[in-house]
Amino acid sequence: MDLSKMPLFKMAQMRLQWAAERQRVLAQNISNIDTPDFRPKDIETPDFERLATEAARPVRTAMTHPNHQPGTLADRTTFDARSERRPFETSLDGNQVVLEEQMQKVGETRSRYMLATNVFEKHIKMLTIALGKQQ
Question: Which of 51, 90, 109, 135 is the most buried (most CB within 10 A)?
Fold first, then answer.
């Protein structure tokens, strides 16, 4: 059974990927707290309703001719990091990273990650019970 084809597991996996990518971006913000003119970035929370409808209609590219070359663009992540528009404050050197704000976002992202892992774990247990493989 391929769990990645079940909508609930797709959504949980998407949430986990989002949280991991957001943690990476927030860690970059924190590591650049002393970099002059640095602008913090963040990743928007995905619209899961839109993602669910798009997932129902996947579009795949295919090489239709043997002379076609694979793309040369760097692999993009599922989520795009964007600069924040309104900084809470700016330091004298132009840096807009506020450590307290970034740490609050890190904690929020951790909570969302834990929620997604708990949902994933509970549904795995539910499936094992339904299949009669309860331990």
Answer: 109
